[in-house]
Design goal:
Elements lengths: L6 H6 L4 H11 L10 H14 L4 H9 L2 H6 L7 H10 L3 H18 L7 E11 L7 E3 L2 E11 L4 E9 L4 H5 L9 E3 L7 H9 L3 E5 L7 E5 L8 E8 L3 E3 L2 E2 L6 E7 L5 E6 L6 H9 L2 H13 L10 H23 L7 H10 L30
Parallel strand pairs: 1-5, 5-6
Antiparallel strand pairs: 1-3, 2-3, 3-4, 6-12, 7-8, 8-11, 9-10, 11-12
Helix pairs in contact: 2-7, 3-4, 3-12, 6-12, 7-12
Length: 381
């Protein structure tokens, strides 16, 4: 019988090891390291993400039983204390920079259209334990936020940053890269006229929500389509001042599209696009659910709810490795055609992680794990 590598080995064939080695060299991550290279650390953490390991000891114990395939990848098992020290002290910039490089390349390969790109911006919070003093939020509460720009068409995050939970979304957004001419969809956490003006100056289309107390100085009422849930479509101006003494830097006219949801709730959607149809504006805002689904995917499939370290460095490394794992799964899924659903493919990979079989032949005779898609359906409220 011909030799066959494990499913995990097949997944790691999509890694850009040369980029990891270069980043390790640039940051001196393996300087005076004798027992655990950064590559071995990465493989151990990625294995922990996919196997659902609940602790560093759990990862180490499982890896000890898999020493044969570890040697094939140029890695080896290590003591728990060594892995914990590496997560606490090894520069997290190696992993965050690796994700940024991979995200750029994967996105370029998966994007279907260069023009009319729509990006979704949002953040998700995770609870940390009381030893994570850097992430103190309130009395007895500690947490971190992951801020993401997500391309729903390519099903791919293109940017991510980690902050303490008390950092505001708009503060993180002001540091995000802007692609001129792209469409950005976001919610009320990014309600800032100055940032909107910056996006508008770059030729970007903005789609978000009005705050309930924000008035609109209407200058034109637009006709409504027949038989739709659009209640009104108006062009006007935002308030001239943000506060008693601050002039609003976003003086260009904006669009207000009021739409009624199935629940009876009315949304006031804001956009700087004065030419698109009201339904197109409403549909763009509706796409926000995709990034919520992505966050739930990451937390449920990659078990990012539980952290293996308490320091800021360890948390940043684990989140970066989780996002890299997502990209590897996307690449592996795109390289095969047997399993259509990305979620079903990911579940198959995790269920067969150490099985010796080709990753493009996961279905075989084994029964596909039941995927309850209804658990991941979200409303766009």
């Amino acid at each position: 019988m011909p030799h066959q590598n494990s499913v995990l080995h097949g997944l790691l064939k999509h890694m850009w090891w040369a980029d990891l080695e270069r980043l390790v060299s640039e940051h001196g991550a393996d300087f005076r390291v004798r027992r655990l290279t950064t590559k071995s650390q990465f493989i151990a953490l990625l294995y922990g993400q996919l196997s659902g390991a609940s602790s560093l000891r759990d990862i180490v114990t499982r890896l000890e039983s898999q020493e044969a395939w570890l040697s094939q990848l140029g890695a080896k098992p290590v003591p728990r204390s060594t892995l914990a020290e590496a997560n606490a002290k090894r520069p997290s910039e190696v992993f965050t920079a690796l994700f940024a490089l991979m995200a750029k390349r994967v996105h370029r390969g998966l994007r279907r259209k260069i023009a009319d790109t729509t990006y979704l911006i949002d953040s998700t919070s995770v609870r940390l334990n009381g030893f994570s003093h850097w992430a103190h939020f309130s009395t007895g509460v500690f947490g971190a936020k992951t801020h993401v720009i997500y391309d729903a068409d390519a099903d791919c995050p293109i940017y991510a940053a980690v902050t303490a939970a008390n950092a505001t979304d708009i503060t993180a957004a002001q540091l995000m890269p802007i692609e001129p001419g792209a469409t950005y969809v976001f919610d009320l956490g990014y309600y800032d006229y100055r940032w909107w003006a910056t996006l508008d100056a770059q030729g970007c289309r903005i789609v978000t929500r009005f705050k309930s107390n924000t008035p609109l100085a209407v200058v034109e009422e637009l006709p409504l389509p027949d038989g739709s849930t659009i209640l009104s479509d108006r062009i006007g101006h935002l308030p001239e001042r943000q506060a008693a003494s601050r002039r609003n830097p976003f003086q260009d006219p904006v669009r207000e599209v009021r739409v009624m949801l199935d629940t009876g709730k009315i949304l006031r959607i804001l956009s700087n696009d004065l030419d698109a149809s009201a339904q197109e504006i409403a549909d763009l805002y509706k796409r926000r659910w995709a990034i919520e689904l992505f966050f739930r995917w990451i937390k449920q499939v990659l078990k990012i709810k539980k952290f293996l370290g308490t320091s800021e460095n360890a948390v940043r490394i684990q989140i970066a490795v989780a996002l890299i794992t997502f990209l590897l799964l996307r690449l592996a899924h795109a390289a095969q055609s047997a399993v259509k659903s990305p979620l079903a493919f990911a579940r198959l990979v995790t269920a067969n992680l150490m099985m010796r079989r080709r990753i493009d032949r996961l279905l075989g005779r084994e029964r596909t794990p039941d995927i309850n898609q209804s658990q991941l359906v979200l409303q766009w409220t």
